[in-house]
User: What shape does this take?
Amino acid sequence: MAVDESDRNYEHPLYSMPGLSVAATSVDKLLTWGATNSLWVFAMATSCCGIELMATAASRVDADRMGTIIRGTPRQCDVMVVAGTITVKMAPRVLKLWEQMPEPKWCIAMGSCAISGDFYRDIYSVIPGIDTAIPVDVYIPGCPPNPEQLMAGLIRLQEKVRAVRGGEWAPKDERPETEAMQKTAPSIPRLLSAERSPDVTLAQLLGAGNLGLGGALNRAADAPPLAAPQETSDAITTQAPTETSEGAVESPSEDEHADA
Amino acid sequence: MSASSAARPSSAAPASAARLGVDPHRDLSDYDPEADLMVLNMGPQHPSTHGVFRLKLHLDGETIVRAVPYVGYLHRGVEKLLEELTFVQATPIVDKNDYVSPMTNEQAINMAFEALLGIEVPRRARYMRTLFAEMQRIASHLLWLSTFGIDMGGALGGGTTLFMHCFREREWILDLFELVTGARFHYNTHTIGGNRHDIPAGWAKQVHTTLDLIASRIDEYLELSTTNSIFVARTRGVGILPKELALELGITGPILRASGVDHDLRRDAPFHAYDEIEVKVQTEPDGDCLSRALVRVREMKESIRLSKLLVDGIPEGPICGARPIKNPTQFKAKEGQAYVALETPRGELGTYVIGGGKNKAASPYRLKIRPPSLHALSALPYLLPGHSISDTVVILGSLDPIMGEADR
Amino acid sequence: MPTPEEFRALLEDDFGVSEWSEKQPPLIEAVDHHRLAEVLKERGYTLYVFVVASHRPGVEGAEDALTAAGYIELATGLRSPTENSQLAIWRVRVGLDEQLATLVDLFAGADWQEREQFDLVGVRFAGHPDPRRLMLPEDWEGHPLRRDYAINTPHPPWR
Ligand code: SF4
Assistant: This one.
């Protein structure tokens, strides 16, 4: 049985400005702006989706720029991101941690496991979705969702926080489509995406990425370390490697096996 | 045959305690009553437990006198699920076991099925599988290094330098896999008899570019780690795992090699393309956390070398040897058992499969995955006593456990 | 350095194995389980690899008493950490309510592995120092990897 969203008391003073429920004053706006842009995340990272959650916090995607910081304790956090499978043994602990989070609090179900249990749904030890235990605000499908999708989910949650605090959160049936709801995931460029020449990327990265330790890269400046290696090994007994790697190969098997 | 007569007197624990020096089941009732022991519970949700893992520590002041690990918080019943599904359907399920190196999971289970069903893998597919496994090893060890940096510097406090840098490099490898399979991880690219996705045009050049870049960075990380006095002070001599204990516990992979045992299935029991290339096995004699770190970092360099050899050496040919898979019950094994093991970033990942299951023998009757992480975790009751509580996280991190695989 | 021939000769001479099959590891008597492990450890198989139990439900009308009542088949693997990385696997069969000698006194790693097999398949080990469940909560009923355990067994209030 899923926990209905109506269980949650949005009338509670904590969800709006205490004592200022009449109109949105500029103070309220300021506080809403602050609350929206500093969603601190409690990472309930149990399994594989947790790795993507880490990747979202890490350098390429950088969720920090949205004010989203992962904290280690539930008592400092606004959002619980449930990333991964929740088992029968783990579920009471998740509930306990959820109860330790101060109001107002939100929950994101990240990945199929947290939404419905994924293909483990029918297994004796897995609970079929975290919404059997705690109310969920945003569902992010995927196995695992890409970091982009998690970012999109966080943006959606910001939209919801803004609406709830501003008193604009309509009942479920009358909720209008907002702009953010139509947004797709933000585009985060890949290192090797087709538009970028690999040489340009390499040059950029070389300029920007070193730790500045004067490591092997800098020391070997006179012998360009990044030239394509020409060494071949005797251990490899095949020939004609370059044609293969440059992709002149037709792959008849590709389509045949893809439908398996 | 009467097995009940095989029962032996229950003297097992004291005997092994005398041999190993530490009794993991120690009863603390004889401990000095003045000491006022405290029990500290870490996990199952703790930022530095690498997943959902619980550790009960009995403390005398700051010193650990007994550590009791609890696993199973991520037990997803994979072995039961695989008995319900057919051989063909198993690959995407096992991806999720060791979610830091899915490629080797797929490889392991498909190799076991191929051994059971007697299916040959074409040479091109063998090279591609080996290449993917080596690149996955780099990605996996990078993730380990990044989280080890966090463990060292306090969870999510300081110490995020390595985290940020290593994740950047890991993303590059995931990008390369994405170009081949379309997925960042959980690739589902291996299948019975070969691979599903061929490598795209120009991919090999990108592999070379990326690996060159990563190689230069890894030198910096090695320098950063070994010349940093805090790093060395917190790892040298901490959590020493003796050789005999490591073997008895079934510990394999980098942890075993860091304890001075020169054993690597890639060289000693070669599978796929490893019999055509030479793997230089990295070992360290001391068995402490620093050795484990050094072995992993050097293994990354070795994997880069191997990947570059392999990507140049991929032969022409088909990428899948079996008939095209038309329906999921295509492969059947009425009987027989097979155990196939391979070397993953965490050690020996074995698959024991018994044929003759459901769906008219198109499913395994019983399938057991031998998880290297579970064996590594079982060393904790031996490693932790005597150390201070702040070393717990470092020792745990140096074992590189992945709970998805340990609990399955 | 241990070799497959040596292993084969050992089993044939000392443990009465006469049937060899490509597809099945050798089957020995359950009483010999501990002794074989001891001998192999002395001969260099010092790396504990795995133990796997599988449940075979009883077959009605079977001639063999064990087959009729149902049994648990255990396969154990040990490895030698030498150049050829030789693997020794053998099987034993125990009745459903019988016990098998534990290997914890030889291999510390058997501790958790045997607990796991007890937890999931329900095989009991005599002399195990810590016979608790490993994966599932302590109050769990049944052993999930037995044939008669339904995969979607409910567990209120969670599922
Ligand atoms: S949804 Fe997929 S990726 Fe996420 S935790 Fe579940 S199995 Fe892992």
Remarks:
- Chain C touches chain A through twelve residues (CB under 8 Å).
